[in-house]
Amino acid sequence: MPRTSGIHHITSFVQDPQGNVDFYAGVLGLRLVKKTINFDAPQVYHFYFGNETGSPGTIMTFFPQEGARRGSIGGGQVGITVFAVPSGALEFWKSRLEQFGIAYEETTRFGEVYVRFHDPSGLLLELTERKSGEDSRWTFDGIGVKEAIKGFAGAVLFSMKPQRTSEVLQGPLGLQQVEESGGWVRYQAAGDRGQIIDMNRNEMEWGRGGAGTVHHIAWRAADDAQQEQFRREAEEQRLHPTPVVDRQYFNAVYFREPGGILFEIATDPPGFAKDEPEETLGERLMLPEWYEPHRQEIERGLTPVEVRVLKGGA
Predict the structure, then answer these.
(1) CA distances from residue 14 to 256, 279, 299 in whole angstroms, order as listed
(2) What's the mean pLDDT in 36-41?
(3) What percent of the chain is modeled with pLDDT above 90?
(4) Is residue 65 part of a domain?
(5) Domain VOC spans what residues (predicted)?
(6) What is the mean pLDDT of residues 113-137?
(7) How far is residue 59 CA from its own chain's centroid?
(8) Nearest Cα residue to 58 out of 151, 145, 190
(9) Is the pLDDT of residue 314 over 70?
(10) For residue 156, is it within any domain?
(11) What is the per-residue DSSP string for 225-262?
């Protein structure tokens, strides 16, 4: 049975495109590694943020849409997206959040300290220190290698049927349950980044999708062959996985687990340098070949955005 290395990416709905870039690139210092469109709705951007190359396990992606209705966080969703920072960096991040007027609170889970806050659309985020996983080499606006977000520490799942979700995590995905305490269950994947998954073991009421909520969480497959193994396992568990979908920068298979959370299996290759050089990732709107003839029309319908250094509090 295959074992996923952990999270490949997490995709969410948000509102203002420029505000989304300002927060994740300008405040959190992630690199905008790909600026493209929602292939199913080309009038909507699809932004990818991550480390210097957008390595699997670092990629936070968004569908930003001005005026989108707000959702509510609840069952059937990733409730909290958790980022990892280097050991000793949390004090830096508390100061930086204060600099930009972002309210936060400290909480603990399984003996680890987390700094919890919301993004402008209401997504619930946490930062925690982790030794595992490579440091990010992307630096921005005073955020150095010793402070930069490394990628995902993991995620917190809110399930409507926690026991059934647990069976999928430990079955087709190959995670291992490692701890249970205070209403939480912890699972661990095989890798060293995005590998720690916590789940509220209480049944959660159904959340409502919309801006400020996670659309899906994607798990890593090393290649197409391993993805097919995961897909067969999901079929045997009667989870009704989709056929393989070409997402340009990875291949994807989707299924909704019994607790209501939309899962994806995404391949590590080919990566974001497939259609533009690493040194200029994210600078130009990239379109798949079938949309290229409509570039002018698509660009006219999208609000221009830019990565910019922000003044504290802006």
Answers:
(1) 21, 27, 20
(2) 95
(3) 98
(4) yes
(5) 6-130, 151-268
(6) 97
(7) 5
(8) 151
(9) no
(10) yes
(11) HHHHHHHHHHHHTT--PPPPEE-SSEEEEEEE-TTS-E
Q: Is 224 exposed, middle or buried (0-12, 13-18, 19+ CB in 10 A)?
A: exposed
Q: How far apart are CA 205 and CA 8, in angstroms?
A: 26
Alpha helices for 1-89 (secondary structure H): 17-21
Specify burial of residue 24 (Cβ count, 10 A radius: 0-12, 13-18, 19+).
buried
With 60 as the cut, is the pLDDT of residue 236 above it? Answer: yes
Indicate whether 221 belongs to any domain.
yes
Euclidean distance between the first and the last CA atom of the chain, given in angstroms as a whole number: 49
The pairing of strands 77-85 and 124-129 is: parallel
- H or E segment and range at residue 90: helix 90-99
Strand pairing report for 184-188 and 196-200: antiparallel
| Exposure on the CB side of residue 83, measured as CA atoms within 13 A | 31
135: nearest Cα among 52, 22, 23: 52
- pLDDT beyond 90 at 223: yes
Residue 258 lies in a domain: yes
Q: What is the pLDDT of residues 96-112, one digit of tens each?
A: 999 999 999 999 999 99
Phi, psi dihedral angles at 249 (to 5 degrees): -105, -5
- Nearest CA to 176 out of 162, 155, 161, 191 is that of 191
Work out the number of other CB atoms within 10 angstroms of the CB of residue 106: 10
Domain hosting residue 27, numbered range = 7-300
Q: What is the pLDDT of residues 60-106, one digit of tens each?
A: 999 999 999 999 999 999 999 999 999 999 999 999 999 999 999 99
Residue 90, pLDDT score: 98
What CATH number does residue 195 fall under? 3.10.180.10
CA-wise closest residue to 209 among 256, 152, 161: 256
